[in-house]
Amino acid sequence: MPTRHEPAAPYEIPAHPSADDPRVTLEEQLGVFEPIPPYPPRTEREAEFYTLRDGEMFINMGPQHPSTHGVLRVVLKLNGEQVVDLDPVLGYLHRGVEKLCENADFHQAICYMDPLEYVSSLFCEWPAVIAFEKLLDVQVPRRAEYIRVLSTELNRVASHALFMGWMALDLGGLTPILYSFIERDEIVEMLAALTGQRMLFNYFRIGGVNGDLNHEFMSRLGDWMSRATEQIEANLTLLNENEIFVRRMRGLGVLDRETALRMAVSGPNLRASGVPFDVRRAHPYSVFPELEFDIPTRQEGDCLARYLLRMDEIRQSLRIIDQCLHEMPDGPVMARVPRLLRARPGRAFAAVEGPRGLYGVHAISDGTDQPFRMRIHDPSFVNLQLVPLLMPGNLVADTMAIMASLDPIMGGIDK
Amino acid sequence: MALTPGTPPAGGAGGGAELPVPAGGRSELVEPIVVPNTLWRPADPVADDRDRALDEITHLRQLEASGLVRRDDARWGGALEVIPTKADYVLDLIRMNSLWPLLSGLACCAIEMMSAATSRNDMDRWGMFPFRASPRQADVLIVAGTLTTKMAGPLLRLWEQMPEPKWCVAMGDCTCSGGRYKRSYSTIEGIDRIMPVDVYVPGCPPRPEGLIYGMMKLQQIVKDARGHWPEKPVGPTVPDGI
Amino acid sequence: MDRAFRRRLELRFGDLLSGPIRQRHDETEIRIAPADVPEVMRTLHDDPAFRFEFLADLCGIDTGRTMQVAYHLWSETTPDWLRVIADGLSRDEPRVPSVTFLWKGAEWMEREAYDMFGIVFEGNRDLRRIYMPPDYRSFPLRKDFFIADDAARSPGAGVRPMERTHVPANAAPGGVVRHSKVD
């Protein structure tokens, strides 16, 4: 047994802890979990939602459910099998990341960003790192930028492969998730060779990345790239040529252009509705001005369009990875930054294009070595607002298809 | 009281409550930390006698040694418990090799749990493929991901809905001890504050192989129900006191 | 840094700005009073010279002295991010008009700002707590809400202070609201 370094002091739980104490006593909460809250409605929307008309009922799709992408509770108002309205309840994974970042150094704050969108961790670290680099006026070497783009595009492929699996899983197909986890495992082992970790990579640093490309990473990457295209196409044919899959998703959850802009969504959900907005081209960062890639856009805005768009993005990501490998410059992978980072008072906002949309970090510095405020903008949070908009009118079984096509990750939604 | 970093808190260091000494007198093991367990009461009527000592015991070994809880309530037991029979052995083998986990993936560790269940690291080899959605059909609750105060109620309700025999695996740093969210205002520092845990799988997130190792340890516990502190393998025919 | 954009903003909103327009790297920042938020946002959204149709972020900020709400907008007319800061909300009763009439997607972002700071957005049809349980009484991201490492009076204090190796050992405990240098 490893020895303990901490003193073995018993925790003092006070006799009457406040309801806001994190060490909660659970006697009050273990009642019957009713979908209807036990207090009168406090807002217009709540009053509108929690009044039942004739023939309607509430069903609680609770925080533990095989089809939610994490702990999301959705209160459905049903008329028979058809969803009339729904109310997502968040907060079951709220970990207080923004508050913890305020009490941490710049480097520690980057570490807190990983578990937000845990399937695409590098995209979570990136805007934080860019924002801190803006605050500290640090210039990142070109090789580090190329490595960043390379690793994040690999992460994007892994994330979209997982999306494909979950999309099929929520429609009832149990096989594609196995294929997508094979894809993801290969990529993630590659990234583990590069960063040391399979999932929450903690690879980006202020001023560069943590380590250079190594032999194992390059050999795994070369091996994978040589068969990536065929492998991905084979996985996709499993679904694209499946009539049930296509017919279920076509015309489902149509999101039109104006609504998408009004809902402030970004990423594939926006591009599938006809708006060619991609942060890599709209507000270029890193070395994307030098890379050649297209922005796939589709006009229909239904679930099938969102799915096919993400598959197009995988192909574009492979193109970017190829270019990065060919044009990788030499040089250091980390700028020379002082050990103790003190930023000038000021603000910085940085945004990158993640697999789900625009990840943004708004960092405010007050001159000390801790960020004064670290605001994390997560795309899944905004995308989830589409759910009460798109789901009404569909059957219960289709609600999961719509939710899966929006690709939410609860870690980012709840922060 | 000025708190300087690195000094232990004044007063209260070293543990106040008396620890029940285990029967073997294992003094070379590190003294466990006793967390006053006011938060969990088992639903078992035999154990649910609101005894003061029971409130302070949180580790399986002390619980067994204290004699307050009927041991091996999953076995047919009774007079036959002195000599485990072939029936016991077979029953344990059956249970051990078809532990059905409950889908209780909360956060990032859920992805690694799914990865452990899919093709590359296949948990189906040990019978754990069907991740049941309903707690009524599940044996093991693998809590994978950070537990927040809002989720604590539903999770405890899931645990209580699971029928006996049931085991709990704390996967990931957040469920073992709070992890990187230890000082947050809305997380619970480890699920052993609210439910009894059999296997802790540390890591952030643990590799799928790590989870599989944890599940194999759980199989060992299921097989002999003797506690998991000793590292050497013990079978059902090993007498008490080991 | 788009100088022409800055001039356009000064021309259009000159009297509504409550501070100089700041530009740093690729961001432009303007400050307005909370009451002017609907007018300014509508102009930025509808005016063909600006066309800020994309809301990138909406957040609340507690500077220790005041509260602020920051909006980040993007338009194809300028290569900069535009940051609009509604400054000067009181810390006791922060109220600001909502922008949900322009962007329905701001609803949850405003709910989050309410949940974390207590900023009331007038006009938001659904202003209730989004992360914390509905009967929670505090606003966690305010600077007077201390997590266990910060203050000596919180029940978790003293258990194990988070290590701050660069802070001298005789520094004051974090019971002071930091409001230096952030405006």
What descriptors fit this protein?
heterotrimer, B: 242 residues, alpha/beta, Rossmann fold, four-stranded parallel β-sheet, 7 helices, 4 strands, 29% helix, 6% strand, disordered N terminus, C: 183 residues, Beta Polymerase, domain 2, five-stranded mixed β-sheet, two-stranded parallel sheet, 7 strands, globular
Break the fold down into its secondary structure elements and pairings.
The complex is a heterotrimer of chains A (415), B (242) and C (183).
Chain A: H1 44-49, E1 57-61, E2 73-79, E3 82-89, H2 97-102, H3 106-113, H4 121-136, H5 142-171, H6 176-195, E4 204-205, E5 208-209, H7 215-240, H8 243-249, H9 257-262, H10 268-271, H11 279-282, H12 303-326, E6 346-354, E7 357-365, E8 371-377, H13 379-383, H14 387-390, H15 396-406, H16 410-414
Helix pairs in contact in A: 3-4, 4-5, 5-6, 5-12, 5-15, 6-7, 7-12, 12-15
Chain B: H1 52-56, H2 60-66, H3 86-97, E1 101-102, H4 108-117, E2 140-144, H5 149-161, E3 167-171, H6 173-177, E4 199-201, H7 208-224
Parallel strand pairs in B: 1-2, 2-3, 3-4
Chain C: H1 3-13, E1 22-24, E2 27-32, H2 37-46, E3 54-62, E4 67-74, E5 81-89, E6 95-97, H3 106-117, E7 120-122
Parallel strand pairs in C: 2-5, 6-7
Antiparallel strand pairs in C: 1-2, 3-4, 4-5
> What's the β-strand tally of chain A?
8
Provide the CATH superfamily of one domain in chain C: NADH:ubiquinone oxidoreductase Nqo5 subunit
What are the secondary-structure elements of chain A, in order, as H or E? HEEEHHHHHEEHHHHHHEEEHHHH
Overall residue-averaged pLDDT value of chain A: 87
Gap from first CA to last CA of chain C: 21 Å
Given as residue ranges, the uncertain stretches of chain C (5+ residues, pLDDT < 50) are: 150-179
Total number of distinct structural domains of chain A:
1
Summary?
Chain A is built from 16 helices and eight strands. Chain A has helices at residues 44-49, 97-102, 106-113, 121-136, 142-171, 176-195, 215-240, 243-249, 257-262, 268-271, 279-282, 303-326, 379-383, 387-390, 396-406, 410-414; strands at 57-61, 73-79, 82-89, 204-205, 208-209, 346-354, 357-365, 371-377.
